[in-house]
Amino acid sequence: MKIQDVKKHIFSILEPFAAANGFKILRGRFVLSRKVGSRTDGIFFTYCSWGVEVNIFPYVSVDYGEITTICNDCGFTLNHSAFINLLLLQRIKLQGFNPDLRWKMQVAKTDRFILSDNEYDDYNRLDMGLSPLLPIALDFLSQYDSIDSIDRLFNTMPIEQYSPYCSGLDTHCMVGLTSAKLSKNADYENIKRMYQRIVKKEDFTIEMKSSFSRIVAYLEQI
């Protein structure tokens, strides 16, 4: 099965949705993208391909240029301020979140659509599965429509150290600290100390810890 054929099929399904909601189809990046001020909204797909089988992972994301630029300039590669696998988000909405849910779905392969040359109904299952995810994606984007909302997502106490809305605790620390500062969170100093304790305690790379220190120093100047 060719990934280009899968992309073509998915974009043909999503084209009316994209046009109705202000998204551009970026075929090379396998994403629906729209720009709103400094924010970029995305519905994107990653994939793995093994000969006759293709695994498609659907995501929704928001990227605030201010947050991303600070992190990247300080040596921490950041692509999204917040994102989540849409099938995981669908499951969370149905049954709530627990820290093991993401890993259980990965093991069971329920966080993806699986397409195979040998299964002719796979495209029908993909079509039926994508449809209910689109309003969930729009709801996510409407909730996280400001840096203040990113601050609330990552810094509402007690914080969820295994948040499903980022790639890991290191990203959580970076985005949480930066969004708190940019949104002028009144509890910023306590939030900063909390993340400093986490970074010191956790087994992060030397490079990540260095980037975090650079971000702290940079934010002190704002």
TrEMBL record:
Descriptive protein name: DUF4304 domain-containing protein
Which superkingdom? Bacteria
